Amino acid sequence: MKVAIIGAGNSGCAQSIKLMQNGHQVNLIKTSHSLHDDNFEALLKTGEIKCLDTTDNNREFALKPNMITRDLEKGLDGAEVVMVLTQSLQHRDLAGRVGPLLKDGQLVFLIPGNMGSTQFSKYTKGKHIIYVEGESTPYDARIIAPGKVEILFKNVRNAVSFLHKDDEKYLPVVTSLFGTHKFLRTNVIESTLHNPNMIVHTIGAIMSASRIEYSKGEFWMYREAFSPSVWNLIEKLDEEKKQVIKAYGGENAINYLDACKWRNEEDLSVDSLQVFRNYAATGGPKGPASLDTRYIYEDVPMELCMLEKLAANKGFSTPVASALITIASALKSTDYRKISYDISDVKDYI
Length: 350
Hints:
The protein has two domains: 2-184, NAD(P)-binding Rossmann-like Domain (Rossmann fold, 3-Layer(aba) Sandwich); 197-349, N-(1-d-carboxylethyl)-l-norvaline Dehydrogenase, domain 2. It contains 18 helices and twelve strands. The chain has helices at residues 10-21, 37-46, 72-76, 91-98, 117-120, 171-178, 188-193, 197-206, 209-215, 221-224, 228-247, 256-264, 272-282, 294-297, 299-313, 319-332, 336-339, 343-346, and strands at 2-6, 25-29, 49-53, 59-63, 67-69, 81-84, 107-110, 130-134, 139-145, 148-154, 158-162, 181-184. It is an alpha/beta fold. Helices cover 44% and strands 17% of the residues. It is globular and about 50 Å long. The two termini are 32 Å apart.
C-alpha cells in the first residue's frame, strides 16, 4: 500500500523503514520545526533513511522513501493509509490542517492515539474516514545521528481500537502494515488508558525528578526508578485505570505488568515482572535527561489528565492520578489540566 507517515522523528523514521521492508511505499512528512530539524534536513539531502537495526543482528543499511516532504497536501495525495506518529499534543492542531485534506476511504492510524481521532473526525464530517488508534509503536527507536535511526526493540503483539465499531472489519488492513496489530480493544478510551506511558513514564519521571536533574543524562529510568515502594504506587494507579476502563464498557482492564508482557513476550507463561526486568536490562532506553521531557509534558496532560476527567465524568475520583498531575504541574509551573482535552472535546465518543 501507499502509506503517508506524518512525523519524521524517532518513530516516524523507524516505522518507515519497517513499512518499506514489508513492501509498502512510504511518503514521509514533517509538519513542524519543533524537533529533529537537523535529522530531517539530512533526510532531504540524501533522500534516504539510514538504519542500525538491533532487532536484525545490528544490520546497517539505508532505504529510500517514495517521498520526503513538508508539503502535507502532496504527501497525503493518493495514500491509502495515513499514519500519525507525532506527539499526541499535536493532534488538535494537526487535525485542522490534515482533516480537510483527507479523502473518502483513507485509513488514519494514530500512534499513540490518546483519543486524537475524536479531534480529526471533527474536520471530516460527511467523509468515510476509517480512524484507528494504537497504544504504542511496534518498534522502539531513537535517532542516533542526523539521517540515521537505531531500531531498539520490537513488540510481538499490538492492540488497536477503531473510533467507529463498524470499521473493525478493516483490522486486516492494519495488520498488513507490520504484522503485529492483530488485536482489538473495546474502544478508544481503553486504548488511551492502556498506553504504557501513562503508568511508567509519568511515575518514573515524577518520582525521580531530583535524580533526573542531578544525573544530567545518566539516568536509566527502567533500571533505577521502579523500587518496591514505587511499584506500590504503580499498582494503585493501575486500579484507577482499570476502574475507568470498566466504567466505559472496556473488556480488557489488565494491569501494566501483564499488558507489558502481552506486548513484549512471545511466551505468555513467563512471569510478568521478569519480562519488565528483561526489557529494562536489554531494551529500556536511557533517560530522560531533564524534566523537559515528553514523559511529563505529553503523558501527564494527554493520559493522566484524561484518566482523571473520564473518571469525574462518571462520578468518581482518581486520587493517585490527581496527586501525580498536581505534583507534575508544580514541578514544571504548568497547569497540565488546562492543556488536556476537555470532556466536551470527546463527548460524542464516550
